[in-house]
Amino acid sequence: MAAESEADSNRARVGLVVNPAAGRDVRRLTGGASVVDNYAKRRVAECVLEGLTVAADGIEVTAMPTLTGIAQDAVEASPVAGDAFPVGLLELTLEGSSADTKAAAARFREEADVVVVLGGDGTTRDVALEIGSVPVVAVATGTNTVVPSPVDGTLAGVAAGLVATGVVPTDDVTTQHGTVDAAVRSGRAADRDRLTALASAELSSRSFVGTRALLDPADLRGGVVSRAHPGDVGLSAVAGAVTSEPVAGDDPGGVAVRLADPDEAERTVRAVVAPGILATIGVESWERLAPGDSVSFELPDGVVGADGERELEATDATVELRPLEDGPRLVDVERALEAGAKRSGFDVDATS
Description:
This is ATP-NAD kinase. The chain has about 350 residues and is an alpha+beta fold.
């Protein structure tokens, strides 16, 4: 961050992360999902900045730069940036990969009071790995969007401003989302034998990472989810179709699901496994897991995925999965707005 003036040192600090790759992968071609291009993301970022004017006198904003210039263009195009409140760019060496998001989140962990993230489950996961206890407003602009909310960027900015300035108590409007830890014992995964998923850790029999997207439901062998609802997408939707009660992201534990050929399984369900793909899935078994409970899967040759993306190739592997309660603190935008109204947060000068 740029050096602060004495006048700005008492301002609440808002971080902004925009993932240029979110919402543009191969699932836009093979499924029915729409493309979220860089112009659309820039406009959402501008809306976030507009919403933050609810607390203009009390905040400053720092955006993560990107090689594609989305954040830079949003700051330049926004009529409020630099006028209503100070806006700057994070000083960051860019690689053009998820490492940029993780590096920015690590900085924001020390330098921000709240962070607004524009992306999908993968982007939100990258932020979650480094953000610590800093509240996150996750706005869906990606492909798999089980965790981020499809909320208007302006409303997301308003919520972030209310939380950052303390107009609404953080504990009243945030929940801690769970994660899924995956430990892989395999020769081919020796250099990278662990990963963290936010909504779901999946096993696929397709033995290469390739485009990374988990597209063919016939390849799925099962996995563990931190949340289960038939209205989700991916393995979380499958789990939601078989459980008797939905499992929210902040509910303790998770659900393990083992899949089978639909023609041989005792139970089959229909679930949205990817945007635009409603598939028939064979379910061998499922079980509710308490926090820290682990289940093991044998994977002769395949890939371990996180949140709908292939991550680790493995052969002759044993994969141990367990749900944990160490995920990000997510801001519930609707609750934040309601709390803001109750606390006169929208009255003129109330946040000054």
